[in-house]
Amino acid sequence: xxxxxxxxxxxxxxxxxxxxxxxxxxxxxxxxxxxxxxxxxxxxxxxxxxxxxxxxxxxxxxxxxxxxxxxxxxxxxxxxxxxxxxxxxxxxxxxxxxxxxxxxxxxxxxxxxxxxxxxxxxxxxxxxxxxxxxxxxxxxxxxxxxxxxxxxxxxxxxxxxxxxxxxxxxxxxxxxxxxxxxxxxxxxxxxxxxxxxxxxxxxxxxxxxxxxxxxxxxxxxxxxxxxxxxxxxxxxxxxxxxxxxxxxxxxxxxxxxxxxxxxxxxxxxxxxxxxxxxxxxxxxxxxxxxxxxxxxxxxxxxxxxxxxxxxxxxxxxxxxxxxxxxxxxxxxxxxxxxxxxxxxxxxxxxxxxxxxxxxxxxxxxxxxxxxxxxxxxxxxxxxxxxxxxxxxxxxxxxxxxxxxxxxxxxxxxxxxxxxxxxxxxxxxxxxxxxxx
Length: 436
What we know:
This protein has 436 residues and is an alpha/beta fold. It has 17 helices and ten strands. It has a four-stranded mixed beta sheet with strand order 2-1-3-10, covered by helices on one side. Helix 1 (2-29) runs parallel beside helix 3 (85-98). The longest helix is centred in the N-terminal third of the chain and has 28 residues, at 2-29. Mean pLDDT is 91; it is low at 1-41.
C-alpha cells in the first residue's frame, strides 16, 4: 500500500508537469481581454445573462446546484459532467494539457487543490471581485482557496467542520448524561477522553469503547501544526510528537475499538452501537442508516478538543474560458446567502458564510440530532480551525506521517522509529525536499 501511494504521488507530479509546460505560453500571451474584472461595472440582471456553462466535478450534488442556477438564470444552460473521483484528476489534467474540451469551471477537492490553484490555467478570481464575495467567509475556508500571491483562486460554498457524534442511549448509560454541553465538557481534552474511556471499558467489561480509533486524535489535531516544507526543507513541528503520544495512549489504555474510519466495522458501530462517539465531518450523514426514520434523534453532537475539518470541494474557473463572465456569475451564486441557505436546509451541508451560521444558530436542527441546535456547536469549532493556504504537498505529507505513526503504534514501536519511517517515505516521494 505504501509503495502504491508513492507511485500515485509521482504519477500526479509527472502529469502536472505536462500541464504546466502546456499552459506556460498561454500565461505569457494572454491579452487584456482575458483580464476580466467585474469591479465597478453595472451588474446584469439574471434574465440578461445568457449562454452555456460547462462544469466538471466528482460530486453529484453539483447537478442540483446547476439546476438552481438555471432557475434563477433562465437563459443559461449549465452542463454538469460528473466523473469518478479516482479518475477525475487525471482526466482534468489531460484536458487542460491538450486543451481539449476544457470546462469553464472545474471542481477541486481539498486534498489535492494545492497542486492546481497556483497554476496559470486557473483564473484570478480576486481580479473579478471575489474578495468582496468572501469577506464574511469562515477564515479557514477562504484561506484554503487563496494562491501564493494572496489572490483568490477557488471558492467553496460550504465548510466541513468535524465534531463528536455520539449515541445518546450509550452516553446516558455509560457517561450518565446525553446533554451535548455536559458531554462536550467531559471530552474537552484528550486526557479527559482517556480517563473517561478507561471508565467505559471497565463498566462494560470491554464490550463498549468510548471512541472508534486512535485516528480520531490525528483527525482532530492535524490542522494545528506548522507546514511541513519551509525553504525546501522538511520541518517537523514538535507538536507531532504530542499527537503521536496521545494516539499511542488511546490504544494502550484500551480507549478505542480499533475500528478505522469508514471501515466496515466502523460503519456497523456508527449505526448499531458498541462505540459511544465518533469524530465525524458534518457531511457524514450519508453513512447513517435512516431507513424508516431509524436514526432520528439517535445522536448528539459534542465538541472535539480542537476544531478540525475534513474534505471540502472548491470551484475554479479556467483562465482560457470564453465564458469567464458567466462562469464568475456562477461562482457569485454559490457564494451567496441565497444558495448557502438553501443548501443548508436541503442537504445539511454546513455553510461557508458566517452570516448563515449566525442567522440559523438558534433555529436549525437536523433529524439525526433531534432538537439540538447543531449550528452553534459547529460554528464554535469551525472558527477554531487555523486558516492556512493549500500547498502542493502538505496534505500528502501529513498522510505519510499518519501512515508511519499508525504502523508504529500497531507494531509497538516508539516515535523515533515512526519518524525514521516517515522521513524515508518523504525522501522517496519527494526527492526535491531536503530531509535530515
